[in-house]
Amino acid sequence: MADGTKSRCTCMNCRVRGLMGPFMLIAVGVIFLIGQFTRYGFGDLWPVLLVVAGIVLLTQSLASRAGHTGS
Ligand SMILES: [Zn+2]
User: Fold this and answer.
1) 29-32 long-range contacts, Cβ below 8 Å, gap at least 24?
2) CA 5 to ligand 1 center in whole angstroms
3) Considering the entire predicted model, what is its pTM?
4) Distance 69 CA to ligand 1 centre (A)
5) Which value, to the nearest 10 degrees, does the dihedral of the CA atoms of residues 40, 45, 46, 52 take?
6) 47 CA to middle of ligand 1, Å?
7) Which domain range does residue 53 map to?
8) In a domain, 70, yes or no
9) Is residue 71 part of a domain?
10) Is 32 within a domain?
11) How many domains does the chain have?
């Protein structure tokens, strides 16, 4: 196995953790989008961010670390 010095771990746990940022950006975008088309604003919908973060963290805790590499 010839691994590079900078090999990215591809176990499910690390993959899910890497999704946190994109998911939060998507959630923020969707919230502002909803704010454009409905009478609900960010002030009404911000808890959605907590739900999204919770789902990602929950998924991460359930995700397997099998094949985890690096520290
Ligand atoms: Zn990993």
Assistant:
1) none
2) 15
3) 0.74
4) 5
5) -150
6) 29
7) 12-62
8) no
9) no
10) yes
11) 1
* Cα 14 to averaged position of ligand 1 atoms, centre (Å): 4
pLDDT value of position 70: 78
Distance 8 CA to ligand 1 centre (A): 8
Residue 30 lies in a domain: yes
Dig out the tokens for 40 from the structure.
């609900």
Which two tokens mark 59? 């998924």
Write out pLDDT tens, residues 45-62. Answer: 999 999 999 999 999 999
pLDDT score of 3 more than 70: no
pLDDT score, position 29: 95
Q: What does the pLDDT read at residue 8?
A: 85
**What's the pLDDT band for 7 if we cut at 50, 70, 90?**
confident
The two three-digit tokens of residue 50, written as one number: 């907590």
Helix (H, G, I), strand (E, B) or coil at 43: helix
Ligand 1 mean position, distance from CA 68 (Å): 4
